[in-house]
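Tutorial, part two.
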Amino acid sequence: MQNFEFKNPTKILFGKGQIASLSKEIPQDAKVLMLYGGGSIKKNGIYDQVKAALGDKDILEFGGIPANPEYEVLLKALKVIKAEKVDFLLAVGGGSVIDGVKFLASAALYEGDTPWDILTKRIRTEVGMPFGTVLTLPATGSEMNSGSVITREETKEKLAMGGPGLFPQFSILDPEVVHSIPPRQIANGIVDAFNHVLEQYATYPANANLQDRFAESILQTLIEIGPEVLKDPKNYNAAANFMWSCTMALNGLIQKGVPTDWAVHAIGHELTALYGIDHARTLAIIGPSHYKHNFESKKEKLAQYGERVWNITSGTVEEKAQQAIDKTVEFYHQLDVATKLSDYTDNYNNTAQIIFDRFVERGWTGLGEHQNVTPEDVKTIVEMSY
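Running the prediction step on this input gives:
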Protein backbone atom coordinates (compact mmCIF):
# COMPACT_ATOMS: atom_id res chain seq x y z
CA MET A 1 0.00 0.00 0.00
CA GLN A 2 1.23 3.47 -0.89
CA ASN A 3 1.62 6.32 1.62
CA PHE A 4 -1.31 8.70 1.79
CA GLU A 5 -3.02 11.57 3.58
CA PHE A 6 -6.78 11.67 3.90
CA LYS A 7 -9.05 14.45 5.05
CA ASN A 8 -12.62 15.01 3.93
CA PRO A 9 -14.27 17.91 5.76
CA THR A 10 -17.70 17.71 4.10
CA LYS A 11 -20.60 17.13 6.47
CA ILE A 12 -23.20 14.75 5.05
CA LEU A 13 -26.87 14.93 6.01
CA PHE A 14 -28.38 11.76 4.54
CA GLY A 15 -31.97 10.55 4.44
CA LYS A 16 -35.63 11.47 4.19
CA GLY A 17 -36.53 14.99 5.17
CA GLN A 18 -32.98 16.25 5.52
CA ILE A 19 -33.61 19.26 3.28
CA ALA A 20 -35.48 20.74 6.22
CA SER A 21 -32.13 20.90 8.05
CA LEU A 22 -30.71 23.33 5.50
CA SER A 23 -31.18 26.58 7.38
CA LYS A 24 -29.06 25.61 10.38
CA GLU A 25 -26.10 24.72 8.13
CA ILE A 26 -25.78 28.22 6.64
CA PRO A 27 -24.55 31.18 8.74
CA GLN A 28 -27.49 33.31 9.80
CA ASP A 29 -26.00 36.55 8.48
CA ALA A 30 -24.80 35.10 5.15
CA LYS A 31 -25.83 36.59 1.82
CA VAL A 32 -26.58 33.47 -0.20
CA LEU A 33 -26.66 32.84 -3.93
CA MET A 34 -28.73 29.74 -4.68
CA LEU A 35 -27.77 28.17 -8.02
CA TYR A 36 -29.57 25.49 -9.97
CA GLY A 37 -30.00 24.07 -13.46
CA GLY A 38 -32.74 24.12 -16.04
CA GLY A 39 -35.65 24.39 -13.66
CA SER A 40 -36.59 20.76 -12.98
CA ILE A 41 -36.39 21.50 -9.24
CA LYS A 42 -39.39 23.79 -9.66
CA LYS A 43 -41.42 20.92 -11.13
CA ASN A 44 -40.51 18.15 -8.69
CA GLY A 45 -40.98 20.09 -5.46
CA ILE A 46 -37.33 20.35 -4.43
CA TYR A 47 -37.25 24.11 -5.04
CA ASP A 48 -40.19 24.64 -2.71
CA GLN A 49 -38.59 22.44 -0.04
CA VAL A 50 -35.33 24.38 -0.23
CA LYS A 51 -37.01 27.78 -0.14
CA ALA A 52 -39.11 26.75 2.85
CA ALA A 53 -36.03 25.44 4.66
CA LEU A 54 -34.10 28.67 4.02
CA GLY A 55 -36.78 30.70 5.74
CA ASP A 56 -35.96 34.39 6.04
CA LYS A 57 -32.32 34.21 4.97
CA ASP A 58 -31.02 36.77 2.46
CA ILE A 59 -31.25 34.74 -0.76
CA LEU A 60 -30.53 35.54 -4.40
CA GLU A 61 -31.08 33.00 -7.19
CA PHE A 62 -29.27 32.08 -10.39
CA GLY A 63 -30.78 29.39 -12.62
CA GLY A 64 -29.88 27.93 -15.98
CA ILE A 65 -26.57 26.16 -15.34
CA PRO A 66 -26.47 23.58 -18.18
CA ALA A 67 -25.75 19.86 -17.96
CA ASN A 68 -22.09 20.52 -18.75
CA PRO A 69 -21.45 23.68 -16.71
CA GLU A 70 -20.64 26.29 -19.29
CA TYR A 71 -17.95 28.87 -18.64
CA GLU A 72 -19.80 31.80 -20.22
CA VAL A 73 -22.93 31.08 -18.16
CA LEU A 74 -20.85 30.84 -14.99
CA LEU A 75 -19.23 34.21 -15.72
CA LYS A 76 -22.72 35.75 -15.54
CA ALA A 77 -23.19 34.19 -12.11
CA LEU A 78 -19.76 35.48 -11.09
CA LYS A 79 -20.87 39.03 -11.90
CA VAL A 80 -23.86 38.60 -9.59
CA ILE A 81 -21.62 37.30 -6.80
CA LYS A 82 -19.34 40.31 -7.01
CA ALA A 83 -22.00 42.96 -7.62
CA GLU A 84 -24.25 41.75 -4.80
CA LYS A 85 -21.40 40.95 -2.40
CA VAL A 86 -22.52 37.34 -1.98
CA ASP A 87 -20.54 35.42 0.64
CA PHE A 88 -22.13 31.94 0.58
CA LEU A 89 -23.09 29.72 -2.36
CA LEU A 90 -25.74 27.00 -2.39
CA ALA A 91 -25.81 24.45 -5.19
CA VAL A 92 -29.18 22.74 -5.66
CA GLY A 93 -28.68 20.17 -8.38
CA GLY A 94 -26.56 17.34 -9.68
CA GLY A 95 -22.86 17.17 -10.42
CA SER A 96 -22.96 19.83 -13.12
CA VAL A 97 -24.49 22.47 -10.86
CA ILE A 98 -22.14 21.53 -8.02
CA ASP A 99 -19.11 21.61 -10.34
CA GLY A 100 -20.22 25.03 -11.58
CA VAL A 101 -20.51 26.31 -8.01
CA LYS A 102 -17.02 25.00 -7.23
CA PHE A 103 -15.67 27.00 -10.15
CA LEU A 104 -17.48 30.07 -8.82
CA ALA A 105 -16.18 29.46 -5.30
CA SER A 106 -12.67 29.58 -6.74
CA ALA A 107 -13.22 32.36 -9.27
CA ALA A 108 -14.89 34.64 -6.70
CA LEU A 109 -11.60 34.88 -4.80
CA TYR A 110 -9.26 34.60 -7.80
CA GLU A 111 -7.07 37.67 -8.25
CA GLY A 112 -6.19 37.13 -11.90
CA ASP A 113 -7.90 38.74 -14.88
CA THR A 114 -9.09 35.57 -16.62
CA PRO A 115 -10.79 32.89 -14.49
CA TRP A 116 -10.36 30.35 -17.30
CA ASP A 117 -6.69 30.32 -16.31
CA ILE A 118 -7.69 28.39 -13.19
CA LEU A 119 -8.38 25.46 -15.51
CA THR A 120 -5.81 25.90 -18.29
CA LYS A 121 -2.97 26.57 -15.84
CA ARG A 122 -4.23 23.98 -13.34
CA ILE A 123 -4.23 26.45 -10.47
CA ARG A 124 -4.93 24.63 -7.22
CA THR A 125 -7.62 26.30 -5.12
CA GLU A 126 -6.41 26.45 -1.55
CA VAL A 127 -9.22 28.71 -0.29
CA GLY A 128 -12.62 29.18 -1.92
CA MET A 129 -15.86 30.93 -1.06
CA PRO A 130 -17.85 28.68 1.31
CA PHE A 131 -20.69 26.68 -0.22
CA GLY A 132 -23.04 23.82 0.44
CA THR A 133 -25.08 21.50 -1.74
CA VAL A 134 -28.49 19.88 -1.98
CA LEU A 135 -27.98 16.89 -4.25
CA THR A 136 -30.77 16.21 -6.75
CA LEU A 137 -29.06 13.73 -9.08
CA PRO A 138 -26.68 11.01 -7.80
CA ALA A 139 -23.79 10.38 -10.19
CA THR A 140 -20.58 12.35 -9.94
CA GLY A 141 -19.73 12.34 -6.23
CA SER A 142 -19.06 16.08 -6.50
CA GLU A 143 -21.12 16.58 -3.34
CA MET A 144 -18.29 15.12 -1.23
CA ASN A 145 -15.09 15.90 -3.11
CA SER A 146 -13.02 18.90 -4.16
CA GLY A 147 -12.91 18.37 -7.93
CA SER A 148 -14.79 20.09 -10.74
CA VAL A 149 -14.98 19.90 -14.53
CA ILE A 150 -16.01 22.93 -16.62
CA THR A 151 -16.93 23.17 -20.30
CA ARG A 152 -16.21 26.07 -22.64
CA GLU A 153 -18.37 25.94 -25.75
CA GLU A 154 -16.34 28.65 -27.51
CA THR A 155 -13.23 26.46 -27.63
CA LYS A 156 -14.91 23.02 -27.42
CA GLU A 157 -12.93 22.23 -24.27
CA LYS A 158 -13.78 20.45 -21.03
CA LEU A 159 -11.16 20.83 -18.30
CA ALA A 160 -10.76 19.88 -14.66
CA MET A 161 -9.83 21.88 -11.57
CA GLY A 162 -9.73 21.33 -7.82
CA GLY A 163 -8.02 21.88 -4.49
CA PRO A 164 -8.71 21.64 -0.76
CA GLY A 165 -10.65 24.91 -0.82
CA LEU A 166 -13.40 23.31 -2.91
CA PHE A 167 -14.91 20.76 -0.54
CA PRO A 168 -18.56 21.58 0.21
CA GLN A 169 -19.10 22.60 3.82
CA PHE A 170 -22.12 20.33 3.83
CA SER A 171 -24.17 18.24 1.43
CA ILE A 172 -27.78 17.16 1.87
CA LEU A 173 -28.56 13.77 0.35
CA ASP A 174 -32.26 12.86 0.38
CA PRO A 175 -32.84 9.67 -1.65
CA GLU A 176 -36.45 10.67 -2.25
CA VAL A 177 -35.23 13.09 -4.96
CA VAL A 178 -34.52 10.01 -7.11
CA HIS A 179 -38.30 9.54 -7.57
CA SER A 180 -38.46 12.21 -10.26
CA ILE A 181 -35.23 11.49 -12.15
CA PRO A 182 -35.72 10.27 -15.77
CA PRO A 183 -34.42 6.74 -16.54
CA ARG A 184 -31.67 8.06 -18.82
CA GLN A 185 -30.22 10.15 -16.00
CA ILE A 186 -30.43 7.29 -13.51
CA ALA A 187 -28.57 5.04 -15.96
CA ASN A 188 -25.97 7.78 -16.43
CA GLY A 189 -25.50 8.01 -12.68
CA ILE A 190 -24.94 4.27 -12.33
CA VAL A 191 -22.42 4.19 -15.18
CA ASP A 192 -20.65 7.33 -13.97
CA ALA A 193 -20.17 5.96 -10.45
CA PHE A 194 -19.15 2.56 -11.81
CA ASN A 195 -16.42 4.15 -13.88
CA HIS A 196 -15.24 6.33 -11.02
CA VAL A 197 -14.54 3.15 -9.11
CA LEU A 198 -12.81 1.45 -12.04
CA GLU A 199 -10.51 4.44 -12.56
CA GLN A 200 -9.26 3.92 -8.99
CA TYR A 201 -9.31 0.11 -9.04
CA ALA A 202 -8.54 -1.31 -12.49
CA THR A 203 -4.82 -0.50 -12.40
CA TYR A 204 -2.28 -2.92 -10.87
CA PRO A 205 -2.02 -4.73 -7.50
CA ALA A 206 -0.78 -2.51 -4.66
CA ASN A 207 -1.39 -4.79 -1.65
CA ALA A 208 -4.17 -2.46 -0.52
CA ASN A 209 -6.57 -5.23 0.47
CA LEU A 210 -9.13 -3.08 2.26
CA GLN A 211 -9.24 -0.46 -0.49
CA ASP A 212 -9.84 -3.20 -3.05
CA ARG A 213 -12.71 -4.58 -0.98
CA PHE A 214 -14.22 -1.12 -0.58
CA ALA A 215 -14.09 -0.62 -4.35
CA GLU A 216 -15.48 -4.06 -5.13
CA SER A 217 -18.36 -3.57 -2.71
CA ILE A 218 -19.41 -0.36 -4.47
CA LEU A 219 -19.28 -2.10 -7.85
CA GLN A 220 -21.30 -5.05 -6.53
CA THR A 221 -23.88 -2.73 -5.01
CA LEU A 222 -24.31 -0.79 -8.25
CA ILE A 223 -24.73 -4.03 -10.21
CA GLU A 224 -27.30 -5.25 -7.70
CA ILE A 225 -29.40 -2.12 -7.25
CA GLY A 226 -28.92 -0.45 -10.64
CA PRO A 227 -31.67 -2.40 -12.41
CA GLU A 228 -33.89 -2.08 -9.32
CA VAL A 229 -33.76 1.69 -9.14
CA LEU A 230 -34.24 1.97 -12.90
CA LYS A 231 -37.35 -0.22 -12.67
CA ASP A 232 -38.79 1.63 -9.68
CA PRO A 233 -37.19 4.96 -8.69
CA LYS A 234 -39.66 5.15 -5.79
CA ASN A 235 -38.03 2.12 -4.16
CA TYR A 236 -36.47 4.06 -1.29
CA ASN A 237 -33.93 1.41 -0.27
CA ALA A 238 -32.66 1.02 -3.84
CA ALA A 239 -32.53 4.80 -4.27
CA ALA A 240 -30.66 5.23 -0.98
CA ASN A 241 -28.04 2.63 -1.86
CA PHE A 242 -27.69 4.12 -5.34
CA MET A 243 -27.16 7.62 -3.96
CA TRP A 244 -24.64 6.60 -1.30
CA SER A 245 -22.72 4.40 -3.76
CA CYS A 246 -22.31 7.37 -6.11
CA THR A 247 -20.99 9.50 -3.26
CA MET A 248 -18.62 6.84 -1.95
CA ALA A 249 -17.30 6.17 -5.43
CA LEU A 250 -15.55 9.53 -5.55
CA ASN A 251 -15.18 11.03 -2.09
CA GLY A 252 -11.47 10.23 -1.92
CA LEU A 253 -11.62 7.15 0.29
CA ILE A 254 -11.07 4.34 -2.21
CA GLN A 255 -8.20 6.09 -3.99
CA LYS A 256 -5.98 6.34 -0.91
CA GLY A 257 -2.97 4.04 -0.90
CA VAL A 258 -3.52 2.82 -4.46
CA PRO A 259 -2.53 3.92 -7.98
CA THR A 260 -5.23 5.62 -10.04
CA ASP A 261 -5.78 5.92 -13.78
CA TRP A 262 -8.17 8.69 -15.01
CA ALA A 263 -7.17 8.33 -18.67
CA VAL A 264 -10.72 7.24 -19.51
CA HIS A 265 -12.06 10.48 -18.05
CA ALA A 266 -9.47 12.62 -19.84
CA ILE A 267 -10.44 11.12 -23.20
CA GLY A 268 -14.15 11.02 -22.42
CA HIS A 269 -14.23 14.73 -21.63
CA GLU A 270 -13.15 15.42 -25.19
CA LEU A 271 -16.12 13.49 -26.59
CA THR A 272 -18.47 15.59 -24.47
CA ALA A 273 -16.76 18.80 -25.55
CA LEU A 274 -16.85 17.83 -29.23
CA TYR A 275 -20.26 16.18 -29.51
CA GLY A 276 -22.22 16.95 -26.35
CA ILE A 277 -22.41 13.26 -25.41
CA ASP A 278 -23.46 12.66 -21.80
CA HIS A 279 -20.37 12.36 -19.61
CA ALA A 280 -21.20 8.89 -18.31
CA ARG A 281 -21.77 7.59 -21.82
CA THR A 282 -18.36 8.82 -22.96
CA LEU A 283 -16.86 6.66 -20.20
CA ALA A 284 -18.83 3.66 -21.44
CA ILE A 285 -17.49 4.34 -24.95
CA ILE A 286 -13.83 4.73 -24.00
CA GLY A 287 -13.43 2.41 -21.00
CA PRO A 288 -13.61 -1.00 -22.72
CA SER A 289 -11.18 0.04 -25.46
CA HIS A 290 -8.80 1.51 -22.89
CA TYR A 291 -8.72 -1.76 -20.93
CA LYS A 292 -8.20 -3.80 -24.10
CA HIS A 293 -5.39 -1.56 -25.35
CA ASN A 294 -3.62 -1.62 -21.97
CA PHE A 295 -4.50 -5.23 -21.27
CA GLU A 296 -1.03 -6.49 -20.32
CA SER A 297 -0.50 -3.91 -17.57
CA LYS A 298 -4.06 -4.21 -16.24
CA LYS A 299 -4.86 -7.90 -16.60
CA GLU A 300 -4.12 -8.88 -13.00
CA LYS A 301 -6.57 -6.38 -11.54
CA LEU A 302 -9.07 -7.01 -14.31
CA ALA A 303 -8.95 -10.72 -13.51
CA GLN A 304 -9.43 -9.96 -9.81
CA TYR A 305 -12.36 -7.74 -10.74
CA GLY A 306 -13.80 -10.58 -12.78
CA GLU A 307 -13.44 -13.08 -9.94
CA ARG A 308 -14.70 -10.94 -7.07
CA VAL A 309 -17.33 -8.80 -8.77
CA TRP A 310 -18.58 -10.95 -11.67
CA ASN A 311 -17.96 -14.38 -10.08
CA ILE A 312 -15.79 -15.57 -12.97
CA THR A 313 -14.09 -18.59 -11.45
CA SER A 314 -12.58 -20.52 -14.37
CA GLY A 315 -9.95 -19.77 -16.97
CA THR A 316 -6.51 -18.17 -17.08
CA VAL A 317 -5.74 -14.69 -15.80
CA GLU A 318 -6.05 -13.44 -19.38
CA GLU A 319 -9.38 -15.19 -19.93
CA LYS A 320 -10.85 -13.89 -16.69
CA ALA A 321 -9.67 -10.37 -17.47
CA GLN A 322 -11.22 -10.44 -20.94
CA GLN A 323 -14.49 -11.84 -19.59
CA ALA A 324 -14.54 -9.05 -17.01
CA ILE A 325 -14.36 -6.45 -19.80
CA ASP A 326 -17.13 -8.25 -21.67
CA LYS A 327 -19.31 -8.40 -18.54
CA THR A 328 -18.83 -4.67 -18.03
CA VAL A 329 -20.04 -3.92 -21.55
CA GLU A 330 -23.03 -6.25 -21.03
CA PHE A 331 -23.90 -4.37 -17.85
CA TYR A 332 -23.89 -1.02 -19.67
CA HIS A 333 -26.10 -2.49 -22.39
CA GLN A 334 -28.46 -3.81 -19.71
CA LEU A 335 -28.84 -0.20 -18.58
CA ASP A 336 -29.52 0.83 -22.20
CA VAL A 337 -26.19 2.65 -22.46
CA ALA A 338 -24.47 2.23 -25.84
CA THR A 339 -20.71 1.68 -25.93
CA LYS A 340 -19.55 2.80 -29.38
CA LEU A 341 -18.97 6.35 -30.62
CA SER A 342 -20.89 5.54 -33.79
CA ASP A 343 -23.99 4.99 -31.64
CA TYR A 344 -23.95 8.71 -30.83
CA THR A 345 -22.68 10.51 -33.92
CA ASP A 346 -22.04 9.90 -37.62
CA ASN A 347 -19.31 12.53 -37.67
CA TYR A 348 -16.59 10.58 -35.87
CA ASN A 349 -13.96 9.83 -38.52
CA ASN A 350 -11.50 12.54 -37.45
CA THR A 351 -12.18 12.32 -33.73
CA ALA A 352 -9.04 10.39 -32.80
CA GLN A 353 -6.81 12.85 -34.66
CA ILE A 354 -8.50 15.87 -33.08
CA ILE A 355 -8.01 14.46 -29.58
CA PHE A 356 -4.42 13.44 -30.38
CA ASP A 357 -3.65 17.00 -31.49
CA ARG A 358 -5.20 18.50 -28.36
CA PHE A 359 -3.27 16.24 -26.01
CA VAL A 360 0.00 17.02 -27.77
CA GLU A 361 -0.72 20.75 -27.64
CA ARG A 362 -1.45 20.58 -23.90
CA GLY A 363 1.60 18.44 -23.20
CA TRP A 364 -0.50 15.52 -21.99
CA THR A 365 2.09 12.99 -23.04
CA GLY A 366 1.76 10.42 -20.25
CA LEU A 367 -1.66 9.46 -18.88
CA GLY A 368 -2.76 6.51 -16.75
CA GLU A 369 -1.42 4.90 -13.60
CA HIS A 370 2.01 4.37 -15.17
CA GLN A 371 2.02 7.76 -16.94
CA ASN A 372 2.80 5.91 -20.16
CA VAL A 373 -0.41 6.32 -22.17
CA THR A 374 0.85 8.58 -24.94
CA PRO A 375 -1.18 10.67 -27.39
CA GLU A 376 -0.55 7.89 -29.94
CA ASP A 377 -2.10 5.40 -27.51
CA VAL A 378 -5.03 7.76 -27.00
CA LYS A 379 -5.53 7.96 -30.75
CA THR A 380 -5.60 4.16 -30.99
CA ILE A 381 -8.03 3.83 -28.03
CA VAL A 382 -10.43 6.32 -29.61
CA GLU A 383 -10.24 4.56 -32.97
CA MET A 384 -11.00 1.25 -31.23
CA SER A 385 -14.11 2.93 -29.77
CA TYR A 386 -15.62 3.94 -33.12
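The longest helix spans residues 209-231. In part three we will examine how such features are distributed along the chain.
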